[in-house]
Prior knowledge:
By secondary structure, this protein is mainly alpha-helical. The chain folds into two domains: 1-30, no CATH class; 42-87. It is built from three helices and no strands. It has helices at 23-30, 32-60, 67-80. The chain is elongated and about 50 Å long.
Amino acid sequence: MAGSKGHDDTALGGSGVEGAATPKAARVFSSTWGVLVLNLVCCLLWGSAFPCIKIGYRVFGIASGDTGSQLLFAGILVVSVDPGSRS
Length: 87
């Protein structure tokens, strides 16, 4: 058991070492203002996704009823931003 609460954080991708986060990151995530700013950034990015996808449909001439092209467009977006594909 790695954690003091009786759970193994290595199964969830943790390092198994308590306090492994950097002190600066710990301060940001434990600060009310830090969490608020990060939440606002995430909300702005999430809210901008829908208009950007609609603009992409318009640029590539994808009709609203063309489900196949929309799925292909979504698949290309996912594959093109995959950080694991970069060498």
